[in-house]
């Protein structure tokens, strides 16, 4: 396929369009009766069981999707990614988050240079620093151990590390390693987030990690200046060097801020923000909380999936299968959303992280060559842990619009509970729902079944479930650091596969720029109005009215305020 050709102009795409008519003549009730089909749609890799038999697809559909992947040159694009070629063409960058978790002896090149030794140089520095902080060898300005960490970052500098932290908080080994320590994440520039993060913390025992590649991110740097003031006002300006470190590549601005450049931990242009949890962005705060050995297991889990993604044939390749099925659901069956439903409370921050990984990557309107697309890309990702979600939005999933679902279950609970004389354990109760919900979506319930149950006639239509609603199930053996790394990498690569098929750049994010640019104009106006009393000008009537109302209603804000920090 020539680079200028859109995938929708290829024969495999057209064949899949025609194939939809055949699929529409089937129902999952019938497809699920085909045992050999179901058997062919289950696979295991490194302890993880994937079951995609409840997708509205046949083995013929899969073969057509593999042909589509060939037409889109997906294998070639995977190879180019792993070889360090600059596949992020709009920013002229390699895409090498796989190098962040590669074994020490691996060779992954970018511009002809093996980047793995640099990665491990930073990892070794994190190991050494985190061990010194955790052991009490590195102390704060008053000689007290630093047992509390606040990581400041936004977007990928926050959502990924928060997901991993939340998943580890209740894991037995991680609990022991984190005993007596706290890790908090400050992302929102809203002062309420600042107040919540510093409440109950003592500056003497707090270490702040500022995460900003350029050290210029507006929200992050304002939050960093706020916590610098919090530390300085309590301990003096000289305490900043002992209580603040950085994850950044801009050593000049780090030093100007008051942080010792020796306490800056690097990452690289070939690491996208939403793919950065395996860099110092995530590894540093997580190692301070849990110790580097736990985090290294997380990296090894991700690396295991990386190698599987790179080398496994597509028929047995978990991220490729998931990516192709998502393309099928979005581009051919017309399903614009996807629900991520982990049946584990420890994974409560997984869906918010994948929201960014997926929607920032694939929410594009033009091809990688800049050609407007005649088809939609990406899907609306959302989710909530089961069974909470069942009492929230499952009504719509069962009887409203069709939303393909990812059910994620765990064989062994991190925190098992058993009660004498109960029918099942708490975890078995949870998993009963994990196993039942996909069948409820697939089979539904017919009017005939309801009539046999003597349901009142006027309620039959209300209690009918159409079924034929696709889902897939992922069953993890447990939820330790290694498994968490596996799950992360599966979804990262799944998103890449979708983008490779659609012919878009899944590794830039120009869509976030315009709003930030307009916000800078508003910031200047607010400054001019507060300080000089200037009227609001240069905006449309609606925006001018909103800003003017805001300024008038908050006229009690002093024009030249003295420093005021949150008080809770």
Automatic annotation (TrEMBL):
<dbReference type="InterPro" id="IPR023096">
    <property type="entry name" value="G6P_Isomerase_C"/>
</dbReference>
<comment type="pathway">
    <text>Carbohydrate degradation; glycolysis; D-glyceraldehyde 3-phosphate and glycerone phosphate from D-glucose: step 2/4.</text>
</comment>
<dbReference type="InterPro" id="IPR035482">
    <property type="entry name" value="SIS_PGI_2"/>
</dbReference>
<dbReference type="GO" id="GO:0004347">
    <property type="term" value="F:glucose-6-phosphate isomerase activity"/>
</dbReference>
<keyword id="KW-0963">Cytoplasm</keyword>
<comment type="similarity">
    <text>Belongs to the GPI family.</text>
</comment>
<dbReference type="GO" id="GO:0097367">
    <property type="term" value="F:carbohydrate derivative binding"/>
</dbReference>
<dbReference type="Pfam" id="PF00342">
    <property type="entry name" value="PGI"/>
</dbReference>
<dbReference type="InterPro" id="IPR018189">
    <property type="entry name" value="Phosphoglucose_isomerase_CS"/>
</dbReference>
<protein>
    <recommendedName>
        <fullName>Glucose-6-phosphate isomerase</fullName>
        <ecNumber>5.3.1.9</ecNumber>
    </recommendedName>
</protein>
<dbReference type="InterPro" id="IPR046348">
    <property type="entry name" value="SIS_dom_sf"/>
</dbReference>
<dbReference type="InterPro" id="IPR001672">
    <property type="entry name" value="G6P_Isomerase"/>
</dbReference>
<dbReference type="InterPro" id="IPR035476">
    <property type="entry name" value="SIS_PGI_1"/>
</dbReference>
<dbReference type="GO" id="GO:0006094">
    <property type="term" value="P:gluconeogenesis"/>
</dbReference>
<comment type="subunit">
    <text>Homodimer.</text>
</comment>
<keyword id="KW-0312">Gluconeogenesis</keyword>
<dbReference type="GO" id="GO:0006096">
    <property type="term" value="P:glycolytic process"/>
</dbReference>
<dbReference type="GO" id="GO:0005737">
    <property type="term" value="C:cytoplasm"/>
</dbReference>
<keyword id="KW-0324">Glycolysis</keyword>
<keyword id="KW-0413">Isomerase</keyword>
